[in-house]
Amino acid sequence: MPSRGDRVAARQAKLRQKRRRVKGAGQTFDAGPSSEEIAARPAPAEVEAPPRRAASAPAQPQPAGRSRRAAATDSAPLHYPYLAGELKRVGGVSLGIFVILAIATVFLG
Predict the structure, then answer these.
(1) Is this model's pTM higher than 0.85 or not?
(2) pLDDT per residue over 60-76, tens digit each?
(3) Predicted pLDDT of residue 67
(4) Residue 103: which pLDDT band, with cuts at 50, 70 and 90?
């Protein structure tokens, strides 16, 4: 009866052979057209852009002197329901770290 080490080695060799056999089909890469093929192609015909349609409602002009950023910030303020709790938690943890550092500074020198 083979020892345990022999069985493990046989199992590993079997897996290794299986990996070698089960390699998938090789990848083939297309290099694309050569420079001669590109030069031999006829030039593409000019394509006209489709005409633009006018907007159904005219855009409202902004008052003179106001920037786009100022106009964007005039909207309703954003609401962050968890921000206060997160800030309190971060403040508590940082306060604890500062207290520990202060105590260590006093005792260690």
Answers:
(1) no
(2) 655 556 556 655 556 77
(3) 59
(4) very high
2 touches 10 (CB < 8 A): yes
The amino acid at 40:
A
- Rounded CA-CA distance 64/66 in Å is 6
Residue 88, SS3 per DSSP: helix
What's the chain's length in residues?
A: 109
First to last CA, the chain: 69
Lowest mean pLDDT among 7-16, 55-64, 93-102: 55-64
Q: Which residues of 63-74 are buried (b: 16+ CB within 10 A; e: fewer)?
A: eeeeeeeeeeee
Query: Please, what is the Cα angle at 36 between 32 and 42, to 5 degrees?
Result: 95
Spacing of C-alpha 54 from chain mean position: 37
Residue linked to tokens 């106001």 = 66
Question: How many C-alpha atoms does 4 have within 13 Å on its Cβ side?
Answer: 0
